Amino acid sequence: GEPELNWQALCQPGQTLVFYMGHQGLARLSSRLIEHGLPRDLPAALIENGTLPGQRTVRAKLATLAAEVAALGPLRGPALLVIGEVAAFAATEPVLRTALARGDAAG
Description:
By secondary structure, this protein is an alpha+beta fold. It has helices at residues 7-10, 26-35, 65-72, 93-102, and strands spanning 17-20, 43-48, 56-61, 79-83.
């Protein structure tokens, strides 16, 4: 069944939501968040195998992320689902990953 979540608390403006293994049930989760008030066009990202050489990142609007992820085919590794304005910055991740590999990222 569906987990008992405090949808009203999750859907407050200005928050960043992060779900571990969020690709499982992504379409349903996205729908429920939209039903409870999150904007359809809120940035969202799914990051599979984060920080590893095989990392895949999908950035989209909350309403379309599930379809974008499905187009990739099956996910093979652990994944984080990030929902909120910060997800719009996911496109910069290859630069950070390269810097971390060289050991010169500020941290």
